[in-house]
Design brief:
The complex is a heterodimer. Chain A is mainly β. Helices cover about 0% and strands about 55% of the residues of chain A. Chain A contains no helices and eleven strands. In chain A, the strands form two sheets. In chain A, strands 2, 4, 5, 9, 10 and 11 form a six-stranded mixed β-sheet that branches. A five-stranded antiparallel β-sheet of chain A has the order 1-3-8-7-6, with no helix packed on it. In chain A, a hairpin with a 4-residue loop joins strand 7 and strand 8 (about 70-75). The radius of gyration of chain A is 13 Å and the shape is globular. Chain B is mainly β. Helices cover about 0% and strands about 50% of the residues of chain B. Chain B is built from no helices and eleven strands. Classes of the chains: A mainly beta, B mainly beta. Chains A and B meet through strand 5 and strand 10 of A and strand 5 of B.
């Protein structure tokens, strides 16, 4: 079983739609959580950190559920420019490990 | 600031050849990392460094060596390339990791081993 698992996708949505991605992690000692965005043939870039209380950045909302060990990302009012692969990232201090999920691909169409 | 840069951007090797990938960062970060990314898999950590002169193994270190002689540079070496090392290689750097760790990635090196 992978330490970090994501919806495989791809998600195909029209502009303006709301889309949600889920990510589960297996190590209960995980301490920090992030969503990165990766455009085709580009490097990953931090989209947002995920805080225990949940956090919002414009159209993006991230949630953390420690009891169930999952993270979610909600994108509202999708734009064409949101088309990318979204990587769930989990960090735990034991053993200095940052684990990247395989990513969920999103296509937003006009 | 250039951020994190990688050289070369693309390379084709024959099995058994050697090469070195160069990563440079101008953000004065202590931590640097080398990852590989393969289709259907997340980025996997090859080696990392917590400071100048120090390196450590990551998840998939076999077949690779690294050096961090200067704080701003992190080199990844393949002594005898194998087709299984065909991948996209990303270098990244970060401040000393604490509770919130943001990694800054280079543009990647695409390596094809024939």
């Amino acid at each position: 079983r992978k330490e970090v698992e994501q919806d495989p996708g791809p998600f195909n949505v029209p502009e303006g739609a709301t889309v949600a991605f889920n990510c589960t992690y297996s190590n209960s000692a995980s301490q920090s959580f992030f969503w990165y965005r990766q455009d085709c043939r580009k490097e990953p870039k931090l989209l947002m950190s995920v805080y225990s209380s949940g956090n919002e950045d414009g159209r993006f909302t991230a949630q953390l559920n420690r009891a169930s060990q999952y993270i979610s990302l909600l994108i509202r009012d999708s734009k064409l420019s949101d088309s990318a692969t979204y990587l769930c990232v989990v960090y735990h201090t034991g053993g200095f490990k940052t684990i990247f999920g395989a990513g969920t691909r999103l296509f937003v169409k006009a | 600031n250039a951020g994190v840069t990688q050289t070369p951007k693309f390379r084709v090797l024959k099995t058994g050849q050697s090469m070195t990938l160069l990563c440079a960062q101008d953000m004065n970060h202590e931590y640097m990392y080398w990852y590989r990314q393969d289709p259907g898999m997340g980025l996997r950590l090859i080696h990392y460094s917590v400071g100048e002169g120090t390196t450590a193994k990551g998840e998939v270190p076999d077949g690779y060596n690294v050096s961090r002689l200067k704080k701003q540079n992190f080199l990844l070496g393949l002594e005898s390339a194998a087709p299984s090392q065909t991948s996209v290689y990303f270098c990244a750097s970060s401040k000393i990791p604490g509770f919130q760790e943001t990694q800054y990635f280079g543009p990647g090196t695409r390596l094809l081993v024939l």
